[in-house]
Amino acid sequence: MTTLRAAVKSAYTLSNINWVTAGFMVAFHLLAVAALWFFSWQNLIVALVLHWMSVGFGISLGYHRLHTHRGFKTSRAFEYFLAICGTLTLEGGPIFWVATHRKHHQLSDQDGDPHSPREGGFWAHVGWILFGDTHHNNTELMGRYAPDLNRDRFYRWLNSYHWVPLTTLGVILLVAGGWSMVLWGIFLRVVVGLHGTWLVNSATHMWGTRRFETRDDSRNSWWVALLTFGEGWHNNHHAHPVSARHGLAWYEFDISWITLKFFSAIGVVSDLKVAKVREPLPAEEAA
Ligand SMILES: [Zn+2]
Ligand SMILES: [Zn+2]
User: Fold this and answer.
1) Distance of alpha carbon 242 from its chain centroid, rounded?
2) Is residue 274 within 8 Å of residue 244, measured between CB atoms?
3) Neighbours of 277 (CB within 10 A)
4) Using one digit for the tens of pLDDT, what is the confidence trace for 138-176?
5) CA of 77 to the centre of ligand 2 (A)
6) Residue 176 in contact with residue 43, Cβ under 8 Å?
7) Which ligand is nearest to the CA of 64?
8) How far is the CA of 257 from the centre of ligand 2 (A)?
9) pLDDT at res. 100
10) Which-ligand-closest: CA of 114?
11) The pTM is what?
C-alpha cells in the first residue's frame, strides 16, 4: 500500500524527477524572468493584490491557520473563498497541503518529515517537490491524512482540480490586460509566492532565533515573516501550532494576525485562538 512514508527524501536522480511538476516549475520561472521586460505600474499593482490574496489570504490565513490548524472559526463560504485563494499559489489543493503540513508538524525534522533541511536546504526548499513522492493529486490517499476536509465534497473536488481557479484567473487577466498582465499576475507573482512559502520550510528551520525549546529546528525569522504575511515566526508556531497569532511580541510583525483582528472586528471570523505566553522578567532570567 502506498503511504505518505514514501515522502521521505529520495535521491536526486533522473528517474525520481516528477516531470510534470518540474516542467511547470521551469516554465513558470522562465516566464517570471520574462515578466521583468514588461513592467508597468498597473501590472505591478495587479501582482501585489493577487500576491496578498493568494499567499496572505489563501496560504497564511486559509490553508495554514484555518484549514490545517483551525486557529479560528468562520463561515463555510469564507472557508471556501480562502481555499480557492490558496489554489492560486500553485501549491496544490487544500487536502494535499493540509495533509503534508500536518505530517510536517507530527514529524518535524524527524524521519518522515516531507521537507526537513536535515536532508539538505535545497531538499527542504524545493527538492521535495521536484524529486519527492508528494502525491499531490492523489485525493484519496491524502484525504486519509486530512479526514475533516475529505468529508467535504467541495474540498475533494478542489483538491483534484486545484489548477482550475488559477487557469480561470489567467484567462481573465489575458482579456483584461493582455499577455504582460498574465506574466505579472500569474507567472512572476506565483514564483515569488512559491519561494516565500518555501522559505518557511527551508530558512526558518535553519536560520533565526529560538524563543521556545521545541523538539524541532524551527526558528523565528523577521525577514521571512515580512515576505510571508507573518509566517516567519515559525518557532513560535511550532511551540503553539493552534494559535492564530504567530508574532507573539509587539515587535514581531504578523500581517495575518492584524488582518484576522480586523476580520474579527467586522464579524467575518470568530474564536481566535491565541497562545498564552508569559514573557520571563529580566530578573528571573538573571536568577
Ligand atoms: Zn516547520
Ligand atoms: Zn503549521
Assistant:
1) 16
2) yes
3) 15
4) 777 788 889 999 999 999 999 999 999 999 999 999 999
5) 23
6) no
7) 2
8) 14
9) 94
10) 1
11) 0.92
Q: Locate 35 and state its grid cell.
A: 515578466
Coil, strand, or helix at residue 269?
strand
For residue range 10-63, what is the model confidence (pLDDT) as tens digits? Answer: 678 888 899 999 999 999 999 999 999 999 999 999 999 999 999 999 999 999
**Which residues 6+ apart lie within 8 Å of 135 measured at CB?**
2, 4, 6, 7, 96, 141, 142
Ligand closest in space to the Cα of 107: 1
Buried b (16+ CB within 10 A) or exposed e, 182-198: bbbbbbbbbbbbbbbbb
Q: In degrees, to the nearest 5, what angle opens at C-alpha 208 toward C-alphas 196 and 25? A: 20
The grid coordinates listed for 19 are 516531470
pLDDT digits (tens, 9 = 90+) for 110-139: 998 999 999 999 999 999 999 987 766 677
Dihedral pair phi/psi, residue 98, rounded to 5°: -65, -45
H helices within 124-269, ranges in order?
128-131, 139-143, 147-150, 153-160, 163-182, 189-201, 222-227, 234-239, 255-265
Residue with cell 524545493: 126
Question: Can you read off the three cell numbers belonging to residue 233?
Answer: 515566526
CA 83/CA 147 separation, integer angstroms? 16
